[in-house]
Amino acid sequence: MSFLYAAYAATWTIHIVYLITVVRRYSRLKKEVDELNKKI
Amino acid sequence: MKKAFPILGLLTAALLSYALYQALVVAPTEQTMGDVQRIFYYHVPSAWTAFLLFFINFLASIQYLVRRDQKTDTIANWVVIALGVLVCIAPYAFRTLLPAGVYPSSVVTTGIVFVGLYFLIKRLFSEQQTDMLALTTAEVGVVFCTVVLVTGPLWARPVWGIWWTWDVRLTSTLVLWLIYVSYLVLRRFSSSGQTPVLAAALAVFGALDVPLVYFSIWFFRTQHPQPVVGGGGSIDPRMLRVLLINWVAFLCFAFLVCWSRYRLERTKREVEETQALEALLEPRSALR
Hints:
The complex is a heterodimer. By secondary structure, chain A is mostly helical. Chain A is about 95% helix and about 0% strand. Chain A has 1 helix and no strands. Chain A has one helix spanning about 1-40. Chain A is rod-shaped and about 60 Å long. Helix content of chain B is about 80%, strand content about 0%. Chain B has one domain (about 5-25, about 40-225, about 235-280). Classes of the chains: A mainly alpha, B mainly alpha. At the A-B interface, helix 1 of A face helix 2, helix 5 and helix 9 of B.
């Protein structure tokens, strides 16, 4: 059973880590957009 | 479209929860392996999703390459149509050459999906958008392929007694993952204007590994089990139902992630264009 739970946990850990990287990239980009808007 | 995203997100979360319940509680326990066999409901749908994403990446990369020239684009359209017709006729004409358990109708369906997706991408995405689609599907495909490579050994250890073996199916999957990781590394670190073209060429050849991975268990003697779906194997209908529910849930999840990533890439390119334009205008304003 431990292998089963490890596999399911690993799957969601991989997906969540990827989603976090996407969200972080999005927030960085949003900052850049705000800075550009200020300049324009 | 912006309103549709949270609604689809909630529906996908509900579907993933239902699929998880089906996999852990409702699906019957396999007699030989016991509960650890339930890894199957995450391992196989993740692999199918990764293959589909790499397949879309392949089609988008081809389109990015051929649409740069009108004549090549027209030739490519006819080649795709000819391939589609060939794939519809050949399985019935050369039925004996098909691996055991592969139905001609499955090959024909694959051919129709190939042609349909090719022209759908052509209709929905412009040349630059096909490049963004290729990047998006490669990135999300690598995530799903990583899941396959992690859940596989976790299933293999209690069942085979080993974490890994260098057989064709496992090795070709690892090579596939490495090809697409190199694709992403190229996209991330190369600053040349030719990067999308080089990446598209790499993706077209990288995608050739997908059929090798898929059919390796038909053509080679491997440690990996023979296919239980669409390959002449048998599976309990209740298990098949749970497997398909999980696949649909993962497909919806992959679609949403691809959508978010695509929007991110589009915004990123718009920002880069604006920054470039601003950099061009700045010296002039300084001169005034």
